[in-house]
Write a structure and sequence with these properties.
Layout: E1 4-7, H1 17-25, E2 33-40, E3 43-50, H2 57-64, E4 70-71, H3 74-81, E5 99-102, E6 111-114, E7 120-124, H4 126-133, E8 136-138
Parallel strand pairs: 3-5, 5-8
Antiparallel strand pairs: 1-7, 2-3, 2-4, 6-7
Length: 142
């Protein structure tokens, strides 16, 4: 799949990894997406949303066909994905988790998501991200 890796010097004092990435790369924050891991009765799922927005857990649950979800404990998210919080990528996770990409991504030719560590972003087409993760697309933001 066509993609571009973008590295930048991560500042651990920055309050938002996603906004830091947008600033460092000089792109609109709406094009930078964060990967959030949720838990539904012991089953982990992934929501990928713009860094400027909040995840609607009810919408994520509905998108994957479960009753409810809550944000997963950090240790559970890190264990399942193989990545450190703040650098969780939707790609190459240790376990393939059900993934839903926010529908707002479809407005852009390419989006940015974590490359698996703080200070590394992958730029790719939203449709390619969905294809690579066997994901789906739905409105996920409140």
């Amino acid at each position: 799949m066509p993609h571009t890796l973008h590295g930048y010097d991560h500042d651990p004092r920055h309050e938002s990894y996603g906004l830091e990435a947008a600033e460092a790369l000089g792109v609109a924050p709406e094009r930078v997406f964060k990967t959030l891991v949720a838990d539904s009765a012991g089953t982990l799922l992934v929501g990928v949303i713009p860094v400027t927005r909040q995840l609607d857990l009810k919408a994520l649950a509905a998108a994957v066909g479960v009753k409810r979800a809550r944000l997963a404990e950090v240790v559970d998210a890190e264990r399942a994905t193989g990545y450190v919080a703040g650098g969780i990528s939707p790609l190459g996770q240790r376990k393939r988790l059900p993934l839903v990409l926010d529908a707002s991504a479809e407005r852009f030719e390419t989006i940015f998501c974590s490359g698996g560590r703080r200070g590394l972003e992958i730029e790719l087409a939203p449709a390619d991200l969905v294809r690579l993760t066997n994901g789906t697309v739905a409105a996920l933001c409140a």
